[in-house]
Amino acid sequence: MQLHTEAAPATRSLGSRISLHGVSLVVRGEGAPVFLMHGIGGNASSCGALAQLLSEAGYRTFCWDAPGYGQSADPQGPVDHPGLVLQVLASLALGPAHLIGTSWGGVIATRAAAQAPGAVRSLVLADSTRGSAVTGESADRMLARVPELAELGPEAFADRRATRLLSPAADAATAAAVRSEMAGVRLPGYTAAATMMAATDTSNVLPSLQVPSLVLVGEDDVITGVDESRILAESITDASFKIIPRAGHAAVQEKPAEMASSILEFWKRLT
Predict the structure, then answer these.
(1) Do the beta carbons of residue 68 and residue 75 sit within 8 Å?
(2) I want to staple 120 with a disulfide (CB 3.0 to 4.6 A). Which of 24, 113, 160, 170 is the partner?
(3) Mind listing the domains of the chain with CATH numbers?
(4) Cβ proximity of 254 and 218 under 8 Å
(5) Judging by DSSP bridges, how do beta strands 23-28 and 16-20 pair with one another?
(6) Strand, helix or coil at 267?
């Protein structure tokens, strides 16, 4: 097991960083483990406010930078994202973890929970989807983002796309953070993520999930949308479902307190 620990930089004063298997993780708090996975245009910071609230409630949170994102190493080939999550969790050796995935991160979490239910205490899918392979058209649109990023560069790519992630009610600081994170994407990580999404349809996996599940979605989400989240909730046996008011696709950043409250209430019912 490769483990490296360092203090978080001043801009991330809450939590510390560790590195496992080439993946950088921001760690906060003590208690039952919670593993948080950002969307395709984000990084560990995207889940930071939510993770802080959960850590203050008595949980130990791990926000990953997916391969090729943030402080994680760029992938040198195809990436098995769900397998890597499970490998990291096994190396942490903290027992079953609560998984929280937003958008693409939720697809990773779904596949990890299906692959190794014993490693997962619960599943939270935020503004997520079954994957882009639900239709050929959506898979093609996902793959088309890769040459778009290569041609435009991350700054212009973020200018074109970031605003759509937000509710009209989003404040300026949140909007700036969402854009900044998208402007930091790197082509190797984004390519691996888009390739995974374009090849994934979890429709047949969802009914067989064996872990307690909660589906959350911003009411103003125009990327994956409320209807897609409702499909997730209806496909997973006994899943809970909640719409977060005045939030868009980036609900985890726009409304972290409301998200945390919903998640903590869900976990409370599990015990």
Answers:
(1) yes
(2) 113
(3) 3-270 (3.40.50.1820)
(4) yes
(5) antiparallel
(6) helix
